[in-house]
Amino acid sequence: MMMTKRKPLSASMAVALPLLFAAPLAAQDTNVTVGPDAFLAGYYKALDGQISMPVAPPGAPLPSTAATIQRIAFGSCNHQSRSQHMWAQIEATNPDLFLLIGDNVYGDTNWSGDAALSTLRAAYDEQSSHDEFQHFRARVPMMTSWDDHDFGFNDGGAEFAFKGFAEDIYETYWGSSAEVRSRPGIYESRTFGQGDRRVQLIMLDTRFFRSDFERMPYTEERAPLGPYVPSQDESKTMLGGAQWAWLQQELAKPADLRILVSSIQVLTDAHDYESWEQLPRERAKLYDMLGARAESGLLMLSGDRHSGGIYTDVPTGGGEQMWELTSSSLNLAFSTTERNTAREPDPKRVTDFIAEENFGLVEIDWDAETVSLSLRGAEGEVRAEQVVFWNAPPVVDEPETPGDAPLIMRDDRMIPGGENEPQ
């Protein structure tokens, strides 16, 4: 019997199938909802064995759960077809762990819309072929998350019809844990250290469950700082019910310092691209949940923006000063720091907005209970830095931290400094 090779299912066909069957189902029960997964399962079963799934180069094992972590590097936005020079710069900082937090490849480049996600699989294969990446993987332990371009398409979320297969590709490539593979989405958490030196790393999934953002009305002029407007729609979600419940459980676990990783920015309100600002109810829920966590220090890491900076805000009534370090990109810079900083003023950002290639570094001083935050450039040079005390007293009034004002320590608190303040 002659076997004919099945053609990849197109995106338009994936949309048409649910529409074809929706009417009779709706006639029986208006509450029945059938998504693309129900019609794609047979296709992916047939596809199995006809294609090869990409696998990352062998990686260094994660530190033991008892290991004291002192240095964590992280980065985002790595294009598989561009220079891979940053891996050597990151390794030179001798991190205990590296977090690759999204847009780890650009799998939607030249994507034709096929359900087999051919360009995503090819992007991972190309990334694996680089000697620099192979060398790095063998020497530096890694944890990963994803963002839009290694999930599906630009700014994509829960409505992406092929997200289940994208998850299979991700989990196969990175060798995800059994716990991650056991549930929808790729969120995970790990704790390292003992005694009073435990750091918990919480890697959120801001793609698989996320509702579509609300777009601005059409205009001929493109919005200079993004196309979205915040939505008060109570039905919209950033993390989905199961991940929210999981996060609450994770925040109740013992830790001395928690590092929360979100692929998109959390604190800022300065732009209308993707960020937690676009779902203010969900961001308020996050702040409340973080405020109710078991006692610990807190730091947030993010990427996505093809620029990096250090941010601070006091968003809750409890007076807690929160800190966020954004690092992006590893090899896909779009502008210059001077233009970037002028284009996007932000009272919550306490540094310039670093546009050139960068990665983030978090150095933990367990004795002093501080974290040193820095952005490192293409030659490993420091582009921005800040020391944060994670057990600082509550802030009574929200601090004003203009982008050009350094922060200094005064009475065990970080406050804005002026020209005559001691550094």
Overview in brief:
Strand 12 (359-365) and strand 13 (370-376) form a beta hairpin. This protein has helices spanning 11-28, 37-47, 86-92, 118-128, 131-139, 163-174, 178-181, 241-251, 280-291, 337-343, and strands spanning 71-75, 97-100, 142-144, 188-192, 199-203, 214-215, 228-229, 257-261, 297-302, 309-313, 322-326, 359-365, 370-376, 382-389, 407-410, 413-416.
Structural commentary:
24% of the residues lie in helices and 18% in strands. The protein is an alpha/beta fold and 423 residues long. Strands 3-2-1-12-13-14 form a six-stranded mixed beta sheet, with no helix packed on it. The chain is globular and about 60 Å long.
List the helices and strands and how they pair.
Elements: H1 11-28, H2 37-47, E1 71-75, H3 86-92, E2 97-100, H4 118-128, H5 131-139, E3 142-144, H6 163-174, H7 178-181, E4 188-192, E5 199-203, E6 214-215, E7 228-229, H8 241-251, E8 257-261, H9 280-291, E9 297-302, E10 309-313, E11 322-326, H10 337-343, E12 359-365, E13 370-376, E14 382-389, E15 407-410, E16 413-416
Parallel strand pairs: 1-2, 2-3, 5-8, 8-9, 9-11
Antiparallel strand pairs: 1-12, 4-5, 6-7, 10-11, 12-13, 13-14, 15-16
